[in-house]
Amino acid sequence: QVQLVESGGGLVQAGGSLGISCTDSESSFSRRAMAWYRQSTGKQRELVARILRDGNTKYADSVKGRFTIARDNVKKTVYLQMNSLKLEDTAVYYCAGWRSTRILSVIATSAPDYWGQGTLVTVSS
After folding, report:
1. Rounded to an integer, what is the distance from CA 53 to the centroid of its chain?
2. What is d(CA 44, CA 56) in angstroms, rounded to the nearest whole number?
3. Gap between the Cα atoms of 19 and 3, Å rounded
4. Closest to 4 in 3D by CA, of 21, 27, 22, 28
5. What are residue 4's phi and psi, to 5 degrees?
């Protein structure tokens, strides 16, 4: 079974930067599409960024140009580098992944199969 463990959340000031990471327990990581979602208090969980096994990425409009998702298949880790942070970026950030057998059309339209526990990112003024 897939276990996703996140780390790196914390408190940062507006305009600052923070990197968070997520490590996958399984060797199938290299074939798995991965993503970061976030959920703020009182709001729906939203897709922040997604990366396919070939490195193709997708970002929410609200974070384009500020956030970067990357993966290291040797370390079985996906990263989210967050720059120019805004107050509205405050949220619990969740690592997520799809089964390695999922095809793109399913990944693009279906919820992830696996979730991490979440890590809190708080942006202060």
Report:
1. 14
2. 25
3. 20
4. 22
5. -115, 125
Mapped onto helix, strand or coil, the DSSP state of residue 23 is strand
Distance, CA of 33 to CA of 29 (rounded, Å): 8
Mapped onto helix, strand or coil, the DSSP state of residue 102 is coil
pLDDT tens digits, 6-46: 999 999 999 999 999 999 999 999 999 999 999 999 999 99
pLDDT of residue 67: 98
pLDDT digits (tens, 9 = 90+) for 62-115: 999 999 999 999 999 999 999 999 999 999 999 999 999 999 999 999 999 999
Distances (CA, A) of 54 to 33, 46, 104: 9, 23, 11
Instruction: Give the number of other CB atoms < 10 A from CB of residue 86.
Output: 14
Nearest residue to 77 (alpha-carbon basis) of 19, 120, 38: 19
Q: How far is CA 57 from CA 3, 33, 36, 43, 120, in A?
A: 22, 10, 11, 24, 23
